[in-house]
Design goal:
CATH architecture of the largest domain in chain A: 2-Layer Sandwich
Structural class of chain B: alpha+beta
Number of strands of chain A: 14
Largest sheet of chain A: 5 strands, antiparallel
Helix content of chain A: 25-40%
Bound molecules: flavin-adenine dinucleotide
Strand order of the largest sheet of chain B: 3-5-1-12-9-10-11
CATH topology of the largest domain in chain B: Aldehyde Oxidoreductase, domain 4
Distance between the termini of chain A: 52 Å
CATH class of the largest domain in chain B: Alpha Beta
Number of domains of chain A: 3
CATH architecture of the largest domain in chain B: 2-Layer Sandwich
Shape of chain B: globular
Oligomer: heterodimer
Chain lengths: 287, 816
């Protein structure tokens, strides 16, 4: 469990980092918190020729909160975003989900953007970005572009970042008026990747009836899966909503895989349970 | 300063060093040494047709590559079968490096030595081994079918078959008023110490001697094994167990292939070499345990009293049997627990599979045996509709019946005779501690809140402190420091504390003056090892006996100096004094000086021991007996002592997600006289934590091809602190009559009954029979579905009990 040889780059500015990435081409990898990449290297499951360590690029170490939402720079650690009261006020789903990301020591190093770039379908933050309709800003030596969440996650452990691109920051939109959000997951142990998880956002109309209900699931599909459950809730006020109907709809519209921790049937069942739990809680928040 | 420390809950003396990062573990040593890595088989069963090392040769920093062909003489022979047994008719052990055939994923095939581990792995990655895959045997059922063989010359894949019988169990069952028959399964887990294995060897070419550091539970025996393999006189081999980051059984196995190969290569190359096992290697090339299938037939009367018990066991021992058949022997015998089984017949078949070897892991076959017996007790209670504790009480060995002979042969080859215990009292206290009799109310209250809870308990008896022997050496130097050494090793149990407590109490010296050395053959060459909850019993008693010798010697010499009768002397705080006359005294450090009459002085103290300084008669020799204020003694028991315990738990199962939460966990424990209650409690906590792992989280998942699918801490789930419940502990102290200190072992205890307890509590909560452990939420979910469809059996209690106990899984998605 020692990594194969690689050339190590330690740029101090974004331009240097992008330059190193450009020169490395297909053979380059960004090293952020290292909480996912280092194990892959040690197990020799990844063997990039060049590691571009961005930990000295202080200009990326930012968390910006505006009324529109939360911008997390590429060096913003999970822990920092989790502890930011400003971020929690604007978008409570971030803190709610981050508390389920691994353990404090991992959150002290792992980065929010790294987690998105890693695109693990069992990870919490991709589901949060997806349900909120957020985006990732990618930069390369050729320029910048913004990739919406719906296009960012290409497959398991595969983002749509292109060769030479660095994800410089991610945008998590604020929770609109009369909306509530909730996060829940079931994992084998505290802090483990979930067997199934759900991030829900519910919005009410002027008459306090549910006018939008969206749930993103983790560990259910190859990428974060977002279901719009609004129709199944029949535009009722939360107290009279048939949450079980929404759960049933969700169970019928997913096709999870089984693994050594959870069978496909159990995952499907959990997705139903979590749909109900998170929708209920989100609606409660919205009131 | 206190010297009467036996029984005191003092803090562990080793902890400040260990928890501030000052421990010296194997990988902390040998900074400049070459490092080894191994090419290991990716196949469960295959013939090696070619090994091409060409690609590795260009790695800069490569020093050597070895395959089996390179191993001379005894180094290349199969590893020893450590514990032969007449029933182990087809014992097989591996070659240190595979010869022709590999029999499990992870078996070492090629050894690479390089400047560092990174380069060694780079080289290993480039070695091409060509395999011709053979059909693998995976799992007990596959092995028993024996359509394919792990070893061509072992028919039926059966390495061993053993029957033990007391009375006529089949007959007793046939004529019993009630008979039950069922199957119980336990899956594979592993010791999984935080620190893996590791070996570091230094060859001294001038002295022709070898020093080996190994992360082992038995340095003395590793030393003998290495000496034998390398053809060196044992006096030319030193083996030291440095700080060892946990063992839990896996490190008692020896010599591991690496323990032979690393010293061999160090001598051959005349270079220091180190191998530090990584986690992936540990998963696929160390050892596992636990997997067993049990077929139980039991006959009993209307009170639930056992009349006959017949258990057939299939034991999965992996690809080889270096540690013999200790595990199924322990299951067979310890299954009986605190009970009188009536007539008993137990039979096991030990089966080869193409998986990692199976050797004792903390508990060593007892968790399976206790699972068997305690599930049987619960079944009987459910069948008769009586309280589960009543069935147990009806079957206990009674306090007046000790020593109680179960009529079987234990793992040490000695009769299974329980020395002491008080099981009825323990059950009474257990019920009180967990609130057994009040649980009905608690359950009803929970049900009103839509919650599902259950209670369970399990009892065990644990044979501890097996022989053959351990020794202790105690020396008081002229500075008054007390040096204690014993040959067995420490893996964090707290030996530096308890052995010092015994010494301080026996000698009357301040504990601050006592240092304890374990597992270093330079200090103590004769020992067996640390396993089977034996260290306190064996070395504790040996050290006490050695202390008594030193004390006697000290009193004799002090008596001469003080012109007093030794019988009138006492030792208080390191000073020998005449009882009742504090003015007439001599410190032990001075006694130490006097114990060694000298010709040459090199400091103030020794001046007092030279020939013109000491008085005495001109007609007697200056030295009586041996010089030095030291003593050595050994303790060898006639047979094991039997500790016991009872655990109880209340669990909650989530009606929706099938998650299991342990609400309360209580332990009543009796290991004879307590040397240090705090340490015993710590051992219990650690044991229960591992037990919770075995009950709810840990399993080795092999696929049909014999690939271990979860060979990392990401997927092999050991409980975190967050998964381990608060543990409420009570102690009882029934002294053992078998040894001078009256103590019994405590190391393994905590882990033993946990699967049985948790299974009982889940079964109680769900009303569905639990016959297989561990159990995950996913499995409980499916068990519910099966219960709904009639494929899984409900308990009688559940059948006669209305919802919500039996609320079906189908509605589980809907809350309220
Ligand atoms: C014990 C443990 C438990 C964990 N449990 C969880 C969990 O429950 N849930 C969860 O979500 N995560 C979990 N993680 C993963 C953790 O959240 C990681 O930190 C995160 O997934 C990756 O962030 P990082 O900064 O460490 O990225 P790194 O490990 O440095 O990189 C991961 C990947 O992303 C790429 N990358 C990183 N940053 C960028 C960037 N700015 N631009 C382009 N590419 C980039 C890297 O090249 C690499 O391919 C766990 C990790 C550990 C060690």
């Amino acid at each position: 469990m020692k990594p194969p040889p690689f050339t190590y780059h330690a740029p101090e500015t974004l331009d240097e980092a992008l330059d190193a990435l450009a020169r490395a081409g297909d053979d380059g990898k960004v090293l952020a918190g290292g909480q996912s990449l280092i194990p892959l290297l040690n197990m020799r499951l990844a063997a990039p020729g060049h590691l571009i360590d961005i930990n000295r690029v202080t200009e990326l170490d930012t968390v910006e909160v505006t009324p529109e939402g939360v911008w997390a720079g590429a060096l913003a650690r999970h822990a920092r975003v989790e502890r930011s009261d400003e971020a929690a006020a604007v978008q409570p789903l971030l803190r709610a989900a981050l508390r389920h990301v691994a353990h404090p020591v991992v959150r002290n190093r792992g980065t929010v953007v790294g987690s998105l770039a890693h695109a693990d379908p069992a990870a919490e933050l991709p589901a949060v970005l997806a349900v909120l309709g957020g985006s990732v800003e990618a930069a390369s030596s050729r320029g910048r572009r913004t990739v919406p969440a719906a296009e960012f996650f290409a497959g398991p452990l595969e983002s749509s970042l292109r060769r030479g691109e660095l994800a410089v920051r991610a945008f998590f939109p604020a929770l609109p008026e009369r909306s509530g959000a909730a996060f829940a997951e079931v994992s084998r142990r505290h802090g483990d990747y979930a067997m199934a998880g759900a991030a829900a956002v519910v919005a009410l109309d002027d008459d306090q009836r549910v006018c939008s209900a969206r749930v993103a699931y983790l560990s259910i599909a190859a990428t974060p899966l977002v279901l719009d459950l609004t129709a199944s809730l029949d535009r009722r006020p939360p107290v009279t909503c048939d949450w079980a109907a929404a759960a049933g709809y969700a169970r019928d519209h997913i096709d999870p895989d089984g693994d050594i921790h959870a069978t496909a049937a159990y995952r499907r069942h959990l997705a139903g349970v979590l749909t109900e739990r998170t929708l209920r809680a989100a609606a409660q928040e919205a009131l | 300063m206190s010297t009467a420390l036996f029984g005191e809950p003092i803090a562990r003396r080793e902890d400040p060093r260990l928890i501030t990062g000052q421990g010296r573990y194997l990988d902390d040593l040998g900074g400049g040494a070459l490092e080894a890595a191994f090419v290991r088989s990716p196949h469960a069963h295959a013939r090696i047709t070619d090994i091409d090392v060409g690609g590795a040769l260009e790695i800069e920093g490569l020093v050597a590559i070895y395959t089996w062909e390179d191993l001379p003489g005894r180094v290349g022979e199969p590893l020893p079968l450590l514990i032969p047994h007449p029933a182990l008719t087809h014992g097989r052990t591996a070659y240190p490096l595979a010869r022709d055939v590999v029999r499990h994923v992870g078996e070492p095939v090629v050894m690479v030595v390089a400047r560092d581990r990174y380069l060694a792995e780079d080289a290993a990655e480039r070695i091409r081994v060509t395999y011709e895959p053979l059909p693998p045997v995976v799992g007990i059922e596959d092995a028993a079918r024996a359509e394919r063989l792990v070893h061509d010359d072992v028919p039926g894949n059966a390495g061993a078959h053993l029957v033990q019988e007391v009375g006529d169990a089949p007959g007793a069952i046939a004529s019993a008023p009630h008979v039950l028959e069922f199957r119980l399964d336990i899956e594979r887990s592993a010791s999984m110490p935080l620190e893996g294995r590791g070996v570091y060897a230094r060859w001294d070419a001038d002295d022709e001697s070898l020093r080996v550091y190994s992360s082992t539970q038995t340095s003395t025996s590793v030393r003998m094994a290495i000496a034998a393999k390398l053809g060196l006189p044992p006096v030319k081999v030193e083996v030291i167990a440095p700080d060892v980051g946990g063992g839990f059984g896996v490190k008692i196995v020896h010599p591991w292939p690496e323990e032979v190969l690393v010293p061999w290569a160090a001598r051959l190359l005349d270079r220091e070499i180190k191998w530090t096992e990584d986690r992936r290697e540990h998963f696929v090339s160390a050892a596992h345990e636990r997997a067993q299938v049990h077929f139980v037939r039991v006959g009993f009367d209307d009170e639930g009293r056992l009349l006959g018990l017949d258990v057939r066991i299939q034991h999965d021992h992996g690809a080889y049997t270096p540690y013999g058949i200790i595990v199924p022997i322990i299951t067979s015998t310890q299954l009986l627990g605190p009970y009188k089984p009536g007539a008993y017949r137990v039979e096991f078949t030990s089966l080869y599979t193409n998986t990692v070897i199976v050797t004792p892991y903390r508990g060593a076959g007892r968790p399976q045996g206790v699972f068997c017996m305690e599930r049987t007790m619960d079944r009987i209670a459910d069948e008769l509709g009586i309280d589960r504790t009543a069935v147990r009480a009806a079957n206990f060995v009674q306090p007046g019946e000790f020593p109680y002979d179960q009529g079987l042969v234990f793992q040490d080859g000695r009769p299974l005779i329980y020395d002491s215990g008080d099981y009825p009292e323990m059950l009474r206290r257990t019920k009180e501690l967990i609130g057994w009799d009040e649980f009905g109310d608690r359950r009803a209250e929970a049900e009103r809140q839509g919650r599902r809870i259950g209670i369970g308990l399990a009892c065990y008896v644990e044979g501890t402190g097996v022989g053959p022997y351990e020794g202790g050496h105690v020396e008081i130097d002229s500075g008054g420091r007390v040096h204690v050494s014993t040959g067995l090793t420490s893996q964090g149990q707290g030996h530096q504390t308890v052995f010092a407590q015994i010494t301080a109490s026996e000698l009357g010296v301040p504990i601050e003056d006592v240092t304890v050395t374990t597992g270093d053959t330079r200090r103590f060459a004769y020992a067996v090892g640390t396993f089977a909850s034996r260290a306190a019993v064996m070395s504790g008693n040996a050290i006490a006996l050695a202390c008594r010798k030193v004390r006697e010697k000290a009193l004799r010499i002090a008596g001469e100096a003080l012109e007093a009768d030794p019988r009138d002397l006492e030792i208080v705080d390191g000073v020998v004094r005449v009882k009742g006359d504090a003015g007439s005294s001599i410190p032990l450090r001075t006694v130490a000086v006097l114990s060694n009459p000298l010709r040459y002085a090199f400091d103030e103290e020794t001046r007092r021991a030279t020939q013109f300084a000491v008085g005495g008669s001109a007609d007697t020799p200056p030295l009586t007996g041996e010089p030095g204020l030291e003593g050595e003694d050994y303790y060898s028991p006639v047979r094991s002592t039997f500790a016991c315990g009872m655990h109880a738990a209340i669990v909650e199962t989530d009606p929706d997600t099938a998650e299991v939460c342990i609400l309360r966990y209580t332990v009543l424990h009796d290991c004879g006289r307590l040397i240090n209650p705090r340490i015993v409690e710590g051992q219990i906590h650690g044991g229960v934590a591992q037990g919770v792992g075995g009950a709810l989280y840990e399993r080795m998942v092999y696929d049909e091809a014999g690939q271990l699918l979860n060979a990392s801490f990401m997927d092999f789930l050991m409980p975190y602190a967050t998964e381990v419940p608060a543990i409420e502990t009570g102690h009882m102290e029934t002294p053992s009559p078998l040894n001078p200190l009256g103590i019994k072992g405590a190391g393994e205890a905590g882990v033993i009954p946990v699967s049985a307890v948790i299974a009982a509590a889940i079964e109680d909560a769900e009303g569905i029979r639990v016959s297989r452990m561990p159990i995950s939420p996913s499995e409980l979910f499916h068990l519910r579905l099966e219960a709904e469809s009639g494929a899984a059996e409900l308990t009688n209690r559940a059948r006669s009990h209305p919802a919500p106990l039996r609320r079906a899984a189908g509605e589980a998605g809907v809350r309220e």
